[in-house]
Design brief:
The chain is about 75% helix and about 0% strand. The chain is mostly helical and about 70 residues long. The longest helix has 29 residues.
Length: about 70
């Protein structure tokens, strides 16, 4: 949720910088920023999916008691 807000605010600020200051390089920088937010947000999802696919038990289970 915070990453979505940060992305939106960053895109708006980049658009203003391009429009007023004619800094065309800001578009590339903002694209890298948004892409890094997506990668950081997707890493936990990929790790959780990998654990499910490898049938790893949940961390809160005590295997000795089972």
């Amino acid at each position: 949720m915070v990453a979505d807000a940060a992305s939106s605010i960053g895109v708006i600020l980049a658009a203003i910088a391009i429009w007023i200051l004619h800094w065309l390089w800001v578009d590339g920088v903002m694209s890298l920023f948004v892409a890094s937010l997506i990668v950081v947000g997707s890493v936990p999802l990929v790790l959780q999916s990998l654990n499910i696919l490898l049938e790893k038990p949940s961390g809160h289970l005590d295997l000795a008691r089972l």
